[in-house]
Structure formats: C-alpha cells, structure tokens
Amino acid sequence: QVQLVESGGGSVQPGGSLKLSCAASGSTFRLYAGAWYRQAPGKQRELVAFITRSGSAIYADSAKGRFTISRDNAKNTVYLEMNSLKPEDTAVYYCNAGGLPGGPGRHWGQGTQVTVSS
Asked: Is the dihedral of CA 41, 44, 48, 51 positive or negative?
C-alpha cells in the first residue's frame, strides 16, 4: 500500500509560481508511475501531468510549457512546478500513483488547494 501526502498549495496572483510536492510512504514507490490531477469546482477531475518510473513526462495541453513534473525516487517524492499561473488553474490538485497516461492508479493523496486570483 502506498500513502501519498501533498503539500505546497496556496494562493498566488496570476503569473505567479508554486511548487507542489507529493511524499509517498513505502520503499516501493520507485516502482510506480506518478501523476498530478486537478479538479475545479463543478468540473471533472483531469490529468495535469504524468511521469513514468524512469522519469519520462507527459503533459495535458493546458500544462505544456508552464508546468514541470519531476520525481526523486531517493526521497519517494513527486513534484509539480507550476509557473505563469492563470486563474483557470485554480483547483484542488491531487497526487496519484500506479496509473497510466490513460487513467489513474488506485493510490490518491488528499489533495491540496491552489488558488490563482488577483
């Protein structure tokens, strides 16, 4: 079983930056692909970025060029660095492990709120 804990959310102005962290318990985390999803009020949860066990990344069109997903297997942590934030990036961001680019795995974090507003 993998437990995921997100941190790093908060409120920023448009154009600002945030870096989210997802700390995983268990020494087998390096065997899992990781991902960040987000869910805005009234909308479905959507994939933001996906990273393979070896570190290859896939991004949603909305995240390309602005967000960077990375992982540090020694620290059992996946990161999401977000730059040039827009109001439409406002959502609860969730860490996920064990999934594929086409769908999430069964391990979810509790979520962290990101609010972009002037």
From this structure: positive
Mean pLDDT for back-to-back runs of 10 residues, the chain (118 residues): 94 98 86 96 97 96 98 94 98 96 93 98
Contacts of residue 71, defined as CB under 8 A and 6 or more positions apart, other chains included, come to 34, 51, 55, 77, 78, 79
Q: What amino acid occupies position 84?
A: S
Backbone angles phi, psi at 7, to 5 degrees: -155, 165
How far is the C-alpha of 91 from the C-alpha of 11, rounded, in Å? 11
State the DSSP code for 85.
-
